[in-house]
Amino acid sequence: MNRYSYIRKNLKKNITSAEYKIQDAVIAMLSENNENISVRTAVERAGVERTTFYAYYDRIEDVYEAIENEAIRDILEFEGDEKLSMFIEHLFSFFAENRKAVKAMIASQNRFSYFEKILNAVKYYLEANSICEYSTENEMIENMISSLIVIPLLYYAIEERDVDLKVIEDKITLMMKNA
């Protein structure tokens, strides 16, 4: 069993238009460096009723978690393809398409949670596709490979600069050969 299978739980597939409006409003406010996001400000910005908010979320932090889960779900949906280069390409494409949300989440108070969830989703992929077999000896290699993917990924999303995916892939291949 995969050590990171816990990240699959509670990943809701279908999102309603009201949920989307709320999440989009929160992302917009985070993008504006607004740190005083409350249920009241989120529903005002989203143009929905407070009761609508509470139909989907218990608190504003639940919206952050839903946004995080969107990225995690996308990463996990790629599971099953054993081509590491295609997986890395997929990640970078997703983060390019969702740059605004990624930047907002990194800028938010939840940035470490977001980073950790993405890192664990990548580790899940590596283990699920037997790219990294888990063992205490390989744990450091797995962490390094995951970091080699996620750190440039976040840099790419935040700084909007090109990242040479081939270089990342070559470093990972070299690391795996030396493991």
Q: What labels describe this entry?
A:
179 residues; mainly alpha; Tetracycline Repressor, domain 2; 9 helices; 69% helix; elongated
What's a quick, concise take on this entry?
With 179 residues, this protein is mainly alpha-helical.
Description:
With 179 residues, this protein is mostly helical. The protein has a single domain (13-177), classed as Tetracycline Repressor, domain 2, CATH 1.10.357. The chain contains nine helices and no strands. It has helices at residues 17-31, 39-46, 50-56, 60-77, 84-97, 99-107, 111-128, 139-159, 165-177. Helix 5 packs parallel to helix 8. It is elongated, with a radius of gyration of 17 Å. The two termini are 22 Å apart.
Outline the fold blueprint.
Blueprint: H1 17-31, H2 39-46, H3 50-56, H4 60-77, H5 84-97, H6 99-107, H7 111-128, H8 139-159, H9 165-177
CATH class designation: Mainly Alpha
Distance between the termini: 22 Å
Helix content: 55-70%
CATH topology: Tetracycline Repressor, domain 2
State the fourth-level CATH superfamily: Tetracycline Repressor, domain 2
Mean pLDDT: 79
Order of helices and strands: HHHHHHHHH
Q: Strand count, sense and closure of the main sheet?
A: none
Beta content comes to under 5%
Number of helices: 9
Described by the principal axes of the CA atoms, the overall outline is elongated
